[in-house]
Write a structure and sequence with these properties.
The chain has about 130 residues and is an alpha/beta fold. Helix content is about 40%, strand content about 20%. The protein is built from five helices and five strands; from the N terminus they run E-H-E-H-E-H-E-H-E-H. It has a five-stranded parallel sheet with strand order 2-1-3-4-5, with helices on both faces. The C terminus is likely disordered.
């Protein structure tokens, strides 16, 4: 199973470290970079040599927001899948993220297994993963 090259936008070092360890152990994920704020994330995603298959984005960051990262990546027509991983996965937030180009929204506290399953499906050869898993 090929690796899903993943860029993570998360401002908590503890959550970032735990997320990387979990995803790299339980899914075919290889984390290729991370950012703790909107400006750094947008800059990394815009650099020509940086490529990823998946971007995992927290909504609330040290500066800026994950919504700004989503907006920027949609304007740039980023081909990577974009998912939001947040503690604030309300119906309104899910709708707003979808409007800004998120393929999925996962709740940090209750949907980590679903995120792992999503990443695993992304890594399956020839598997086209729709925004909403059935």
């Amino acid at each position: 199973m090929p690796n899903v090259n993943t860029f993570i936008v998360e401002d908590s070092p503890i959550i970032l470290d735990n997320l990387i360890a979990t995803l790299e152990e339980l899914a075919p994920v290889k984390v290729v970079g991370s950012a703790a704020d909107e400006a750094s994330a947008v800059r990394w995603l815009a650099e020509a040599g940086n490529q990823c298959d998946l971007v995992i984005i927290d909504v609330f960051l040290k500066s800026g927001s994950g919504l700004g990262v989503l907006k920027s990546s949609t304007r740039r027509a980023l081909t990577a899948k974009r998912v939001v991983l947040t503690n604030y996965a309300t119906a309104d937030m899910r709708r707003k993220c979808a409007e800004l180009g998120a393929d999925r929204v996962f709740d940090k506290s209750s949907e980590l297994e679903e995120l792992i399953a999503y990443c695993t499906r992304l890594g399956e050869p020839g598997e086209a993963v729709p925004g909403v898993l059935s």
